Amino acid sequence: MVLAGNHTAQALNAHGAGDCGHESCGVCRNDPSWTPAARCEVVVCDKDAARRINIVDNRAADLGTYDFEALADPRRPG
Questions:
Q1: Which contacts qualify for 10-14: CB closer than 8 Å, 24 or more apart?
Q2: Residue 7 banded pLDDT, cuts 50, 70, 90
């Protein structure tokens, strides 16, 4: 069960391996040998701990911000 990073897992699954066909893919850079990968932590916990992990992950996103200047910078990799 994915407790945090659900959208990352969904995006990697939807992208699939290799060239995604986009002109300038920020994920695989159109490298046909690319294999989807993401960091994964395996945690053994009960349902209450799993619920707390999920709540903290969602709250952290609520409190986060974006660096829009860095995101808009064409020189920034990815």
A1: 12/36, 12/37, 12/38
A2: confident
